[in-house]
């Protein structure tokens, strides 16, 4: 599709003409409800107090057109113990537990959802493909790519307030996305992407559980991708994530479980297994699986690492490779998620001992009552997943993180731009957009105490609003931009975008901040 066609698509029914991330403005502070803005003193952004050096750094723009660093380096959590907060929560769901702001990163969960679109070019490649097998290959790669930005991301995103929103409109990338927190208990974040070639939508209900030495995130909820050119809908659910060494040691992250990507038009499926690292980190980050047709015959094989790349292979080539005893020891897809037999005698011990991962319902071979062993120490990153097999097809490669990632909460360049705000953008956003959240903004500026005060104020304001609704015998606040309905492709209950958001009529928006 030509660039002129893409511009016409976005301009056909609204006044959304601003490129929301092309501004060169840096750290912006909201100073009044009427929308006055000023650029604060950035002298604290440079370790030597050189304002010119700090300004130069903030004037640099990334390949996404956004900033390349946050206003100030991320603070150290070394002096804070999460154990004092979580020791009463072993085995419990953490979404209702108030966490200190020091364990957050300066992004809302809605913005984390938007990070799915970092590799949206894979959808365009799927749309351009004539062969349905090739289309499913790229859709599978897109589904797997969503996990890549989580590597080394040990900060918790801010929980969205009920009615909170976020938008990203990028004509240059060919899509626009709107997100809304549609439910508070349970917390549900709905999103919808419009594009000339596709729509992409879903509602995520993250469950968070503490298991003594690790925190498990279970992202419940299907997402649906629709390719307009081929009249094809695909759906899948994201895999679980686990943060290790919560009590002592360096935090590290892994994804594990089964991801099933289904084409609802022809019933072709890709099933990817995200493997647990195992002892000595042998299986760290590995992803493997197969594509099946509607008769359950294997069409393609997949192998890669969720932090690096995903490859596709001819099934015969792949299985010949596995038939070698040496290769089978390293890669054995026939043994599922783990090639170790779980030791069911192992228990999660908050005082020490063997580390374990709780098995989860996302993997049919696992249950919450069983556990898998993993090493206490942070496993090394490991070797490349490029096996160099004849005829291998590379589907996706993860973009490297910037050199200063550790000073920026391990954000990717895509994530770094998501909370940027300037006068032009502020003028068109609804007052519910999470870029206006004062607690996140203060954290981004390095003002941790002020961030904690604002976070407590917003949470108390939300509680009071809920009490007021109960007194008036009102039901839960109704979402403005999504409604509960039935997903026409999966037949399951889902949150459906009403299409009203981009008309930019904000008079009914609640006062959240």
Explain what this protein looks like in three dimensions.
By secondary structure, this protein is of the alpha+beta class. The protein contains twelve helices and 22 strands. The strands form five sheets. It has a six-stranded antiparallel beta barrel. A hairpin with a 6-residue loop joins strand 21 and strand 22. Helix 5 packs antiparallel against helix 6. The longest helix has 24 residues.
Short description:
This protein has 513 residues and is an alpha+beta fold. The chain is 20% helix and 26% strand. The strands form 5 sheets. A 6-stranded antiparallel beta barrel has the order 8-9-12-13-11-10.
Strand-helix topology:
Layout: H1 3-11, E1 29-30, E2 37-38, H2 51-59, H3 83-86, E3 104-108, H4 109-114, H5 121-128, H6 132-145, E4 156-158, E5 165-170, E6 175-183, E7 188-194, E8 198-210, E9 214-220, E10 222-227, E11 232-237, E12 240-244, E13 252-263, E14 269-274, E15 286-292, E16 298-305, E17 309-313, H7 315-322, H8 325-330, E18 355-358, E19 371-374, E20 393-397, H9 413-416, H10 423-426, H11 438-444, H12 448-471, E21 482-486, E22 493-497
Parallel strand pairs: 3-4
Antiparallel strand pairs: 1-2, 5-6, 6-7, 7-8, 8-9, 8-10, 9-12, 10-11, 11-13, 12-13, 13-14, 14-15, 15-16, 16-17, 17-20, 18-19, 21-22
Q: What oligomerization state is this entry in?
A: single chain
Biggest β-sheet: strands ordered side by side in the sheet: 8-9-12-13-11-10
Structural class: alpha+beta
Spans of at least 5 consecutive residues whose pLDDT stays below 50 are 1-54, 332-372
Proportion of residues in helical segments: 10-25%
Q: Give the percentage of residues in beta strands.
A: 25-35%
Radius of gyration: 23 Å
Bulk shape: globular
Query: Can you count the helices?
Result: 12
How many DSSP E strands?
22
Q: Largest sheet, if any?
A: 6 strands, antiparallel, barrel
Mean pLDDT: 79
Distance linking N and C termini: 41 Å
